[in-house]
Amino acid sequence: MTKEPVQGSPTPTPAPSPMSGGQPPPPFWREWLKSARSVFSWDRLDTWRFRIILLIALVLAIGFFLTPGLTSETVLYDESWLDQISTADIRSPGDFAIEDHAATESKRSDAERAIIPLYDYHSNLGEEINVRIDKAFRQAQQILYDFIVVNLILPREEEAARKAARKGGFRPPEAGGEADKMADTADDRQVQRLRHVQDNIESYFAEIAKSPELSERFKAVILEARLEFNKAIQAVVPEEDYLQLFQSYFSNELLDALQRTVADVMSRKIISDKELMEKSDAGAVTIRMIGAGGNPPPEFIQRDTSGVLDFKEVNQSLWRFTNILSNLGKRQRELLQRLAGKLVQPNLVYNRALTMERRSKVRDRVKTMVIPVKKGEMIIRDGERFEQRHLTILNGIQRELLSTNPLLVMLGYASFFLVLISSLSYFAWRNVRKFDPAIKDYVMMASLLVAFILFVRAVAVVAGALDAALPDVSAEIYYLAIPVAVGAALVRIVLNSETASIFSIVVAVLFGMLASQPFFMSAYALILSFLAADAVGQCRSRGLLFMAGMRVSLVGMLLVVFYYLYTSSPLNMNFLYALSAAGASGVATGIILTGLTPIAEFLFDYTTDIKLLELANLNHPLLKRLIVQAPGTYHHCIIVGSLVESAAEYTHANPLLARVAAYYHDIGKIKTPQYFGENQPEGQNPHDSLSPNMSGLILQSHVKEGVELSRQFKLGPKITAIIAQHHGTSLMRYFYHKAKEHPDPAKAAAEEKDFRYGGPKPQTREAGLVMLADSVEAAARSLDDPTPERIQWLVQRIINAIFKDEQLNECELTLKDLHHIARAFTQTLVGIYHHRPKYPGSERAQEKAANGRAGAQSTKKTAYPYTDLEDEDDKDLRRLGMH
């Protein structure tokens, strides 16, 4: 196809495109989609307000799906459910520790029964009773003595003293008389009187009985002393028995018999009623010796309690013992039995307070019995009968769910993830250089998190459905099969490794909360996510995604092996199931990534390495149009691609992105190819008939046209940005100086800003490389004799000029990078323009080529801003370290 030169037309007309001729109009839905895309723009949503709304919506969604029982119906499982048939599988909605009240009460009852009843054995009680008996008898004897002395002995002594006084003196009593038994001192007299009364008690009683008046007074005194007697003996002695004791003179013989009887009976262990005796299940009791010394009192367990007496057996023992007292009469023995029966007390007393205290302590020490229920654990299967254990677990879960407000639980989960995501994002934003997601990146990651939660929930449902068919497979195994690494790998493919790392942490925490075994599952998800993100770092083919899945499978299986080793779990069929699940997780990761990556590219307009490989195909429609309509530009772009690819390796840039961006950076020239020197025939330059301002507008338009074509053909935001930035704000020197040299002073007053490209300046390493390579390649074409030295000199001067023009201030290229770029450009250009040997007849061709290059030098200067540089001072080169 031949092109007609444009002669002086102020408004350039685009060359007709053979690619569009004769084609039918696009379908209506494409026009609708194009108009919708023009209305919807990610840039319009990229505000802090929308980011906050998105974050709040995300954490609320996470809280909703994590909260157990938020939407479940409350059912009360009472006793009527026993033996009923379950109509569905019921699984636990979360991790619970269900209190088993029945088992706990049984354990506590067993612990209480293990405490043997405690009895206090008062071993000194018999001695204490005998002391009281002795005291009471001595008091009664003293009363008898005092009455006899006062009413019988003292009157006689006074009468004898009066008689002696009348006869003229006192005559001692005769030997053997009452006076012989009295001493001179008062104490001696009292002792002698007591002995005298004891020896002659019967005669004194007979003497009292002879006197009715004295007898009545004596009986009144004795009855009056009965209360004191009962107090002393600490028993209520009936009046009849008391009078019988009185008639027996409270004799020492009766006293001794009573004390021996009490001592003999009280030497046994006596309880009030054996039938009411508290004993352990084995019939044993604990005996605590009270009064035996020691603090605390010594204790021992008595397992045979047959020797313990109750009051029935005590009465029998008293009857047997008193019957052997032959020195007493029948009435005295019966009296002795009655008195002893009144005085004998239980010396073995049940200490209820201390027993209950000990039982209470052991009861409190019994921990509450709980039934651990894991999330997703099968409680009852479809078709099983409800047993008490099922009701206990189900009611316990209901109590747990009802005891807390689900909305508060949801708010707690949402707040936790709000803090987690905000903290990680803030840290990465402050400290990680490449972490700068756009709003569409946040939307994509939020969508991945929600989809991940839904997928995990779906797996839980599937696990419940398969549980009946595979009862031996635990719930944890199904979670191991989940491709947890898909999200992190996709983020790494479409964004970068730094963002993928932050995303992996969130996924790991979330997976630990969704699955059982939180620690292992979180570690499992984190390790596999990091591994998958690393494996797809340089994804240049779809097959690499599958290989990344294989790596995930292998590491996942190793993690399962390590888990079974450190938990000492048995290597049974569950172990094989777990290995298979981990392997399936990796395979699923590769398959899902293969299908999900192009979807993410389309929905969120991402440019991945795989898409770049597709764009690098020289049969792409845009490149085919470029080679037909602007062949010089096409050749220029190919060489620029080679230059940037060789330099990208040294500057940590993406070589593939840089090369593909170089292929498309000048596609805007398709619209007006004849206005750019590489596409002009020899001697034909349309700019000669145009004003400098018009020429400048035409040159600037190819950047805008390129951006529009990039969006039209969906080259992706990365390439579109490089197209817009590949000239930065550089100055079109040729037309600027041409305008300044115009003879008309009004037209010569041109402003520099009118001859600068609209920018922006390069923002990435790849954009900076394309800018440098674009100018270097254009300048290299104008060299008459492209020797290695001249090429090196030219490359250094072009890079220095761009650096001095501050076009690289906003990208990440350093001075060291510029040094490596210059060396790489030089090596590549030397290879392209290497010296060729002269052949016969080649002189004419070389002369023609030299004339063509000479003519092209002026046309090249019209399009490229740094190809018309004058000689610069060497100090500028030294600033770059290139001299």
Structure, explained:
- Helices cover 62% and strands 4% of the residues.
- It is mainly alpha-helical.
- It folds into 3 domains: 124-270 and 309-346, no CATH class; 432-606, Arp2/3 complex 21 kDa subunit ARPC3 (Orthogonal Bundle); 612-879, Hypothetical protein af1432 (Orthogonal Bundle).
- The strands form 3 sheets. A 4-stranded mixed beta sheet has the order 5-4-3-6, covered by helices on one side.
- The longest helix is centred in the N-terminal third of the chain and has 42 residues, at 125-166.
- The radius of gyration is 59 Å and the shape is rod-shaped.
- The two termini are 47 Å apart.
- 35% of the residues are buried.
- Mean pLDDT is 80; it is low at 1-23, 172-183, 848-861 and 870-883.
